[in-house]
Amino acid sequence: MGASVLTAMAILSYQKITRRHLRTEETKERRSSIISLINDEYEEKDPLDEALVLEFLARNIAFLGEEGVSKIRKSFVIVVGNGAIGSYTSLMLVRSGIQHIRIIDKGVIRLRSLTCHAVAKVADVGKRKVDTMKKHLAHIAPNATIEPVCETLGPDNMDSLLSGQPDFVVDTLSSVKDKVLLAKYCKEHNIKIISSISAHGKADPSQIQLTDISSSAQDPLARMYRRQLKKYKIDRGIPVVYSIEKNLNFDKVSDFTKRSLPVFGPIASMFGMSLTTYVILQLAGFTAYELPETKGRDGVYSRIQKEVARKEEAVYGNKTDILDVDDIGYIFEELWQGKSAFSDTLDRALVMTRWDRSKPCSYTNTILVTKQEAKDHEALPAETDLHAHYGPIAEYVEKQLNLEKKVQQLWESCQ
């Protein structure tokens, strides 16, 4: 009995000592792991010798010239957003020679991010996107100054987050409301900006376009973006990357439970590459590529607006609730693409009139037609059934007007 007790005591003592030793070792390992993580996260890389930097950029020098690459290296670029599009943009800007970049994003890497983020690994899940980006870029270009900013850009902090006289701001935000505020700020402060318009729900790389905001078409988000910018008298001068591909049908996405459409990683990367290409060429002063010219129809919009104002006052007694020139331009381009709603006629003498004369002149009740079509339409008896009278034409008109209503509802849901 006594021997058994002594044996048991010896075993318990050994187990206690062993557990204490294991806990000590675990603590050491945990501390070592933390220190290793800190060193890994904030490890400063030795700058490359200038000769090595020039070798690094040799292909760009051959393409853009020494002076062009020198301009790129001296430039300061801010990338707003570090998700699917923003991460590829930041990566390629630094690879292309940008030596001062600020990356703004409040988010963290999630497991689902790995299919479309440019540099994130499984080990990065849960870490801040901007820190993950800085760590990766430090290995590529140790001479570059990378500023990770883990904040959400908003009206209250734009002055500080966009400080430093950036040569370019790249907008990869997904919220139209935030994109509009960012564009407005940049225009007011004479900062060059380029914006990406939703890559979500797109799968055809051949449909990606790079153009001025005034020439973008066939994308609901681009349309909403343009309309809101017009409220601040901005209708051109912002290059955008977007896709003319029709949005992927919701019904084709299995187990779709979110409001936003999914993004396909390869397409997002192409958006980012397109943004980077434009910025780099602009900074280098590379003149071989220029955006298509914007549509010069200001005179047409002004003429139509005056005609609409006169008609509203003379026929309907409306002197106050009148569409302005920007409204006319939006309706002309967005709803009717510069063609008659009735006949697809392309004519600089097109006019606008109410679709339903019992309702006020508005975005959702104004049609673009030829002068004769307007005259015939306005001569119809007030009780005319427009669907019965026009048939398929009425269906097309209603479809376009209802699409505009949906765009308005989409914007209101963003508020």
Automatic annotation (TrEMBL):
Please provide, alphabetically and separated by semicolons, the GO molecular function terms listed in this UniProt record. Answer: tRNA threonylcarbamoyladenosine dehydratase; ubiquitin-like modifier activating enzyme activity
**A biological process from GO:** cyclic threonylcarbamoyladenosine biosynthetic process
Q: Which GO terms describe its cellular component?
A: mitochondrial outer membrane
Record-annotated THIF-type NAD/FAD binding fold domain positions? 58-286
Any idea what this protein is called? THIF-type NAD/FAD binding fold domain-containing protein
Species the sequence originates in: Rhizopus azygosporus
